[in-house]
Amino acid sequence: FFVEIVFPDDQGRPNCSSCWEIYSDHDEHWSDLIDWILFVSWVGGIIIGTMIGSNMVLDEVSRAGPRNVVITGSTRGLGKALAREFLLSGDRVVIASRSEKSVEMTIKELEENLHEGMATEASSSRKNLAHAKVVGTSCDVCDPNDVRNLAEFAVNELGSIDIWINNAGTNKGFRPLLEFTDEEIQQIVSTNLVGSILCTREAMHVMGNQHKAGHIFNMDGAGSGGSSTPLTAVYGSTKCGLRQLQSSLLKECRKSKVGVHTASPGMVLTDLLLSGSTIQNKQMFNIICELPETVARTLVPRMRVVKGSGKAINYLTPPRILLALVTAWLRRGRWFDDKGRALYAAEADRLRNWAESRTRFSFTDAMEMYTENTWVSVFSLSVVCAFIILTGTTTLPGT
Q1: Where does the signal sequence lie (predicted)?
Q2: Is 70 exceeded by the pLDDT of residue 162?
């Protein structure tokens, strides 16, 4: 069977008697072929548009820098993972903690991570890392003077502040309120709520006086939405208070160039989460908890390109929760065994190949960074690509 490709006449029919005969005899086959071409065109348009959109997101993230970032409570856990991720994105980072010794040790460790990252990155990416640096100072976020000194230190070292993350927080285990001491209650409220308010005020003061806009992130946690948090009532009430602070500042800063946002890391395997946890808690952690490095890898790219104010950047999104529940039976023993003993590697071991694994930032990682506006752009691109493909098939009979 041989088909000769010819140009159609003015009515869309083949300008060839033999071809027209074939077309007339096999009209049903042509219809099936056209339907198949239409389907492939739309699928191809969506795939191409999505890939273009992903590359646009990755390009935007790589160009958005360097950022000047301040992170409180950043000498361990999620705070240190965030600092490392910002640093390996080519940003300048100020870390802070109450312990001066911890700050010095963390700076040394992060500098080693940066050197490893520069050794594994391509030459083009290595240029971005050339601007990266990490400095730090001790700061008790409960002390207003310490907070002011932290802001002054950051401005002196970096010149300005683009992103300020209030990550410092504490909890004293899973217990009824009656079992908490006066000192424990005061420390939780002072660190989580008062400290975040003091830091937010100071960050707003600095960012309001600088030429470019700045963004402040307060970390969400259990209870931030007003839900009950039995056995962590004090901690939950502080997080709920931060959500109220957020809604109030959105109205106060409506005409300001300072953006106030929330970041929700979900459940992260840190000392803050594990303190006082039971075996039953740990079995639940197997399902929905993640390592600090995994969470930071998702949150940081979104923080770096945030715009406006009032954004909520979440790691534990509904799709992730659904996936965790559907695959719960596969996640048994992921982090802890039946007796509650940890099965995951220590941080030092996890970071041995961290710089190398981080370079495998691919299409799927870009998909995680999509905002609603980006999805609109991707859909528009898919329609355009589909239209271009479809216009190329108009020479076929019946189209």
Answers
A1: none
A2: yes
Burial (CB < 10 A; 0-12, 13-18, 19+), residue 111, is: middle
pLDDT tens per residue, range 323-354: 888 888 888 888 888 888 888 887 777 776 66
What is the C-alpha separation between 76 and 102, in angstroms, rounded? 9
Q: Are strands 68-72 and 133-138 parallel, antiparallel or unpaired?
A: unpaired
pLDDT tens, position by position, 233-268: 999 999 999 999 999 999 998 888 999 999 999 888
Comparing CA positions, the residue from 213, 238, 215 lying closest to residue 71 is 215
Q: Is the pLDDT of residue 379 over 90?
A: no
Catalytic status, residue 235: yes
Q: Pick the catalytic residue: 235, 315, 344, 370?
A: 235
